[in-house]
Specification:
Blueprint: E1 40-43, H1 48-63, E2 68-71, H2 77-86, E3 91-95, H3 96-103, H4 112-123, E4 128-130, E5 140-145, H5 146-152, E6 166-170, H6 181-187, E7 192-196, H7 200-209, E8 215-218, E9 229-232, E10 244-249, H8 250-270, H9 273-284, H10 290-300
Parallel strand pairs: 1-2, 6-7
Antiparallel strand pairs: 3-10, 4-10, 5-8, 5-9
Helix pairs in contact: 1-8, 1-10, 3-4
GO molecular function: transmembrane transporter activity
Organism: Amycolatopsis bartoniae
GO cellular component, one term: ATP-binding cassette (ABC) transporter complex
Amino acid sequence: MRWTRGLKAGVVLAAAVLGLAACGGGSDQSAAPSKGGSPIVVASFNFTDSQILAELYSQALEAKGYPVTRKFNIGSRELVYPSLKSGELQFIPEYQGAAISSGFNEQAPTDADSEHTKLAQLFAPSGVELLNYAPAENKNTYIVKSDLAKQQGLTKISDLKKLDKVVLGGPPECGTRANCFVGFRDTYKLNVTFQSIQEAGPRLEQLKSGAVTVIPVDSVSPPTADPDYTVLQDDLNIVATENIVPAVNKKVLDERGADFAAVVNAVSAKLTTPELRDLNKQVDADGDTVADVAKDWLSKQGLA
């Protein structure tokens, strides 16, 4: 999933362009003897959930002595993938279905195991491999105002046909993607127009004002649990399964070995969707920092 952006700008950890110095770590690197070697460059997309995941893996690796350089908040896959494939970026927590459909313009399978296999095949020519995927899932979810949903009987995306006109507000890339505007237009056959709104906060404000009808949000973001909004069922399944999976440069995996993979897989194994939703809430709604939220979670799980 994920290409929607977090609601609090204050949690951004680093500059949003490649080549700038990465921000400092959020963990105590004296927790374990250093493994030495070049730092592993861990990246994130430009939304809260991705930054939290990248910080979780970064701190877990640092706790075991692996040096890490953070390059967070870079942007969408269109910006991240060239540097991931070149090796400038070496590790990013991905979302299986969206990686296949948006990153490679391929049809994503409907189950997590098949997605993992297909995504691994797509990444292989670029020297990128996948580690274990997590039980946690975060996908694009579409919300409308609850008062509109009640007035018009909207429970699923296809119900939007009841409206004379639908305005979908989303980030720029939504306009060309089958799991967003293109899916609304071509799969759901809606009378829909697209309004490009880069930031998630302004998108939510436009929804509140009635300027747009529906917007995408992360399925683990606070608005999905807010009674003011109604989550629409994706009844024609334009959005794929979105389990989190670390995509890692093959050279790093070969050089660092099985112990490195075990550290990463241990984090993934503990990540569930409810816990990921809570981590997002702590940052976006409660105002805690990404580094502190990650450190606390890893400590509770015995991983740092």
